[in-house]
Fold this sequence. Notes:
The structure holds two protein chains of two kinds. Chain A is an alpha/beta fold.
Amino acid sequence: MTRTISRRRLLAGAAGLGSAALLAACGKDESGDAGTVTLNVWGGVPAENGPDALFAAFTAKHPNIKVKYTRFVNDDQGNLKLDTALQGGIDIDVVVSYARSALAKRVEAGLLTDLTDRLAGDSVLKVFAPGANPASNYFFDGKAYSAPASRSVETVLANKSLLDKAGVTVPTDWTTADFRAIAKQLSGNGVYGSLIPPDLARQQLGPDFTYKPGGRESNFDHPAFRENFQLRLDMMAEKSAVPMTEIVAQKWDAFAQTPFLTGKVAMWISQPFVMRYIKDTKEYPHDFKTVLLPMPAPQKGAQFWNTGAYGDNVAITKKSKHQDAAFTLLQFWLGEGAAHMVPGGRLPSLPGGDTAKLAVDLGGPDAAKLFDEQSLVTNLLTSDARIPVDAIQTAHAEISTIMNGLNQRVLLGNISIDQWARTAKEQCDAAIKKAA
Amino acid sequence: MQTLVGSARSPVPPVVREKKRRPAGVRSWLPWLFIGPNLVGLIAFTLGPMLAGLGIAFTRWNVLSGLGGIEWVGLDNFAELFADPKFWKALGRTVFFAGLGVPLSIAFGLLLALALNRPLVGRAALRVVFFVPSMVNTVAIGMVWLLVLNPSAGLLNQALRFLGLSEPPTWLVSEDWALPALVLIQVWAGMGYQAVIYLAALQELPQDLHEAAMIDGAGAWRRFRAITWPSLMPTTVFLAITSFIGTSQGFGLIAFLTGGGPGESTTVLAYYMYQSGFQAYKFGYAAAIGVVTFAAVLLLTLLLWRFQKGRGLYT
């Protein structure tokens, strides 16, 4: 006897299955402000480098709010995965954006909650609300959609053994010219004095340095950019900075810690998140101490901007059913919970932390062996460096793409600085015009 | 089981007992049961996305805005594409990459196959050795070639310096040499596969033609030109078509080794499509690049198909 399935029966079965799935999905929802809430958080930091400890401490303080953390890799594919998940209806309550362009895309697509009023009304977080001075957050049409969880001051990380061997003492108020002279002195015998020199354009022009005032035109014809490239080309030519061919061939642009921790580069300008590589002596065994030096000034005694950034922008998704719980987490993350992210190299964005504790947490148990501890405190943790925060967002992603290609070409010697300036201005102006 | 009934003493026609047949309903859907899983996969993961891609090419769509954000723009993406100098440059690089890489890998594959078709000591092992790159992961191939092509410490440049070339090319970090270097890697990675296919074809060739030609006094080159090459024409066309399709989609090696650079010197169409879609989130524009690439490959396939007609020995 054969049994056939009628179309009606098939449809009924499918409908039944669908209903069952729907009910099951509803059953999973742990929402309800009276009961326990589970927040889904997506971030790019590996769970063991801070998030696990942060969320454990948060749940200990707020037992009715649990956190499920999903790590995404902070590259193009990882961000796309996050964005499609955000758009595709996957429950995500809190999301961390690392690049300004990624944050801008999420804001423009209307995926994030406007936090302006909540931040302005918070006695601590009001420093991240529009109008705060100095600005330390990104705003879009005058509104805040996120708050930064980290403040990353750039410093010059130097190999203390190489400095001592060359008998170099770095003055505290050093200049770019000093940096170059010292880099030259440290170069030789398979060692480059520096990976790259400071970014003179950013240091001198500060916030929105790639735009002319008003943001309707790009700024690549400014002499500071020419000065910046000339310095780097000169230093590459005299081998006091790593030639671009070497950086590209060795992929040191993506893995800059490798040449520094293998002793091939004596000075490396970077942010505190790289501390985790220095402390990972299993992966990067090395027998020298790292000393942190302040950024050199472009000219003696001149005011300048640090090339670091406020980052790890924590935002709440518009679709989140737990807006209050998510903001409670954001308050904890940026406030008392920030200490849990320090061992992973993310320093708090809010001022006023316990410096001694921060030094212990950041340096880790082997700090005395790995770092010049005094420099860690003086030049990083108590640094009063001015960090620029960009306010203009027009065609930012397009400009980044254009400039990545052009910068590489000028540094590889394929085009002159004049050609670079002309092309950059032309192409970026066109991108701004199109976006505007 | 089918049984014959009957004997010489009873000359009645044998009766064939009919095989028990399945009901007509079962007979009609049983084949679908077998091909069903594959068909579902084909529709879901190949045909569906292809048709969706075709549709998306006529829209402006930022994936972040969801399905509700899809905006029909007609031929706007194609108009923008044909006015985009980056597209034409990427197309030129794709033509160079495929136009040089495919014939070279086929030529080297054929030479390799002819060599491996001769009685050699360790022939079986050599066949495996040459086929290995076809089975190796793209990233592993890339890692090996990064070491070989390193401008200062790479094996190739050390060899060139040893031979007296004081300023050898900087390969993957040179705007002029990066694309030729990728062609070199592509040829190396692909010729083993080509050789295996050619070997199979060579072993199918009728030997009597060769023997007859030898009796007539034809030399090796003449026999190759008049017998072997025309006989291999269908194989060559098959390899050319599949290689052009594969090369036009070439992405992995470029993404890993050069990221489309230095500058834009290795940004071929497939990589430009990736940049447009997954970096700039211009999915309509990226789909338009995909449609144009598909049309170009289809046209090339038809031309190759037409070219082989009447040229092969067995066509």
